[in-house]
Amino acid sequence: MIKCAQQESCSAVRWLDNKCGIYILMDLKRSTIRYSGIQTVPLTIVTMFDIEVPEEFATVAKALSSSLKNSKISEVFFETFSELNSLPYESCNKNNTKFKLGIDKNVKRYTKEEAEKYGVVKPDEIKSFKHLHLYLPTQFVDMGNKSIEAIMADYRDAKSVFQRAMIEISLDTKEEVKEQFLDHVRMLVNYYEKETTKKTLREKLEGLAFSILVTIDGEDASLPSFILAPMPHEDDKQYRIDNGENYYPENHDSDVKCDISGGLHDSFFKE
């Protein structure tokens, strides 16, 4: 419980105890990074307490901001209109653009007994007390008939699926990788078909071959490098030995042998 200045306790901020941990606003910096089909968005966390507040609340606001920023984000926050309408903060209307959470201020008239007890007020003296509160934008309020628990369950399920995918995420399937590579080769074919700086057909073919080798070597920003190694038939080795010929390295296990990628495009025009 937070205690306010000049009061024994501030009941109006009791709602902070169970809600302040999830009132977090995200200031998203739209810098998007693609990785394995997933887009991540770097963000800066801004809390409701990162604002200018009267001096009497500055210490409290700073402490709460620090606490929130050092805590893990555990939930997406939502309120329901029916719950807000049951709270004593304000009269709610579905046309509201924002909803009050917390009591902004209240007044108290001190009795003779209280004046004698506290010694800093007079009998019948009226004091105004301001309290921490906020206005919740309507996009965080569900106007339907679902309970908060039901709404949160949908988000928890989505988070669980996404988290499982992040942990168990598989690389692009073989067919997807193949199609990406072939699409890139098709693009290169179309490019060199229309290329006008190459004067002869041989120059165009050499340019196409060179560009494909650049891609395999990993020098093209649109695709990763590729392993290019021989994969002979399982009978090929013995056949070549029987015929007195050198045989190709076998790659039937995970230990790749004779990967020739990495410098193909550099060697292409060398005699």
Distance between the termini: 81 Å
The total of beta strands comes to 10
User: Any idea how many domains?
Assistant: 2
Largest sheet, in brief, is:
2 strands, antiparallel
Radius of gyration: 34 Å
Poorly predicted spans: 1-38
Number of helices: 9
- Give the SSE string: HEEEEHEHEEHEEEHHHHH
Task: Please report which band the strand proportion falls in: under 5%, 5-15%, 15-25%, 25-35%, 35-45% or over 45%.
Answer: 5-15%
Secondary structure: helix percent: 25-40%
Which strands sit side by side, in order, in the main sheet? 1-4
- The helix-and-strand class reads alpha+beta
Rounded average pLDDT? 77
Task: Estimate the global geometry from the Cα principal axes.
Answer: elongated
Key traits:
alpha+beta, 2 domains, 271 residues, single chain, two-stranded antiparallel sheet, disordered N terminus
